DNA sequence: CGGTATCCCCCGGGATACTG
DNA sequence: CAGTATCCCGGGGGATACCG
């Protein structure tokens, strides 16, 4: 996004996809849906994503107001992440995504496989 | 995705996001919603995206059965892209995305701005 | 515990030029 | 018209190591 395409502005969907289209944001929202969680808890659930990446993702979401980060002055340190109202409002957006995926994942995968197989068969077209 | 994480399988949402999370797929679906379009038509609507990129995106979508590619044996050549049933079924998925974006884009942008401004103020925390 | 700091690789995506 | 062929850059994201 170097030359500030007006597409970025004219197309709101891009804002959402840039925000939740990355690898972990959706899973984070889902995981925080029923209450705040600590950094390590999230890491475990997210299959031990690298701390750097998790931090980066969380910071980005915090920046956009999707969640809050609360540091507790204890030893050992404790940090909790919690969805904001805005963060919670994303659930209705994700449900259709989930539903579509659940319903069509097999179809897509088999279509993809068939398509690849067909291409592999006919290198003759060249 | 090198070491085939089981997350890819266990989390259907990823399939969708990997598919429509890229820069152009959503816009393509929206643009093909009311009927087939030719390659150049798509290019124009999509703010003159590079042919290479457009081709790549379209091929990926074709591979997953979201659209069909029809070549007409004419001169000059004509190629039309049309959503499949599966492709059309994505619309209900995108509408909430659109709606959320329309409703919250200003909020997110201002929250983001405020957040950045605050960080710029306090390099003292260091 | 909850992060930073580095290094590194891959690839999405744009620019430019050429072709059947 | 509808693509290919190259080159290139930025950054997402993982691995590893270290820190307050």
UniProtKB/TrEMBL annotation, chains A, B:
For this protein, the record's InterPro entries field holds: HTH_HxlR, WH-like_DNA-bd_sf, WH_DNA-bd_sf
Sorted alphabetically, which Gene3D superfamilies does this protein's record hold? Winged helix-like DNA-binding domain superfamily/Winged helix DNA-binding domain
Keyword list, A-Z: DNA-binding, Transcription, Transcription regulation
List each copy of the HTH hxlR-type domain by range: 11-109
Which PROSITE patterns does the annotation name? HTH_HXLR
Please report a single Pfam family linked to this protein. Answer: HxlR
Task: Indicate the segments annotated as coiled coil, or none if absent.
Answer: none
The Gene Ontology terms for molecular function here are:
DNA binding
Which protein are we looking at? Transcriptional regulator
This chain's source organism reads Streptomyces flaveus
């Amino acid at each position: 996004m170097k030359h500030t395409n007006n597409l970025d502005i004219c197309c709101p969907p891009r804002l959402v996809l840039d925000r939740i289209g990355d690898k972990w944001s959706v899973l984070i929202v889902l995981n925080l849906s029923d209450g705040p969680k600590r950094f390590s808890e999230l890491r475990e659930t997210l299959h031990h994503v690298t701390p750097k990446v998790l931090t980066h993702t969380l910071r980005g979401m915090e920046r956009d107001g999707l969640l809050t980060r609360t540091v507790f002055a204890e030893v050992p340190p404790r940090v909790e992440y919690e969805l904001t109202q805005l963060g919670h409002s994303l659930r209705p957006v994700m449900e259709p995504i989930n539903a579509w995926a659940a319903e069509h994942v097999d179809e897509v995968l088999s279509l993809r496989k068939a398509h690849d197989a067909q291409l592999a068969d006919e290198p003759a077209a060249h």
